Amino acid sequence: QAPAARTxxxxxxxxxxxxxxxxxxxxxxxxxxxxxxxRSTFVANVSHELRTPLTVVRGFLEYFTDDGVVDGEQxxxxxxxMSDQTARMLxxxxxxxxxxxxxxxxxxxxxxxxxxxxxxxxxxAEGKSLSDGRHRLDVNCLGPALRGNRKELHSAxxxxxxxAIRYTPAGGEIAIEWAxxxxxxxxSVRDSGVGVAAEHLPRLTERFYRVDRGRSRDTxxxxxxxxxxxxxxxxxxxxxxxxxxxxxxxTFRAAFPDWRLPAAK
Length: 265
Ligand code: ADP
Known about the structure:
Layout: E1 10-16, E2 22-28, H1 30-65, H2 72-104, E3 112-114, H3 116-131, E4 136-141, E5 146-148, H4 150-166, E6 173-181, E7 184-191, H5 213-218, H6 225-235, E8 239-245, E9 249-256
Parallel strand pairs: 4-6
Antiparallel strand pairs: 1-2, 3-5, 6-7, 7-9, 8-9
Helix pairs in contact: 1-2, 2-6, 3-4, 4-6
The structure holds adenosine-5'-diphosphate.
Membrane topology: Multi-pass membrane protein
Subcellular location: Cell inner membrane
Catalytic activity: ATP + protein L-histidine = ADP + protein N-phospho-L-histidine
């Protein structure tokens, strides 16, 4: 459990000064404790996330080692299930690597004027393939080029689109838009999906924070997507805001400062 935000923790050290004199030193260790607590929570989360699929794979492997216990058809079915679990572990490890890379450097390695019409077309194609015809996808590019790292922006926006699809039941609508609002560049993804209750909103971008663990896992979520989005937006001096209503849908907005929109001037 991390210490409460306003509590401070002190440790007292006794320094002997000879002749039975002692110096008492009080050290504020609040930040060190907090970092340590976050680190151990993170390690526990990663271990748990990897342990579950590994246990499934090991369970199925046992059938294969006893010769003749599984027939050809079962063999195929088990192999498919093991392959799914392995893919899940790979996605998790890839997301972890992305996060640690983002945390290690302060700014993107390179920046360019990103053609947003082209990026939105790519997001639309990827969204279509993920949705597989289950949703209506509306895409609108009304703003200028955006100065930033294309690969990182693609990853952040792609995460928002894939969340919209994964948390919206079949038949729902998803609207992706890039537009100027009062001098600010706003990328938004609106969905008509399950929505998020207000009490969860402040914690949504924490690593491994999920409103519904089961649903997130069933749809292939690692629980790291919005943490990655938050880091990428921070590196681009952009802010993230979320409007949501349970059962009605959500809108995720990323707002970029005007100096990232050189063509708008
Ligand atoms: P996950 O891999 O679990 O989707 P994310 O970090 O991308 O991880 O999202 C964290 C949580 O935020 C999700 O588990 C889900 O509960 C909630 N969430 C994210 N996007 C949406 C959305 N568009 N609609 C409803 N809930 C969402």
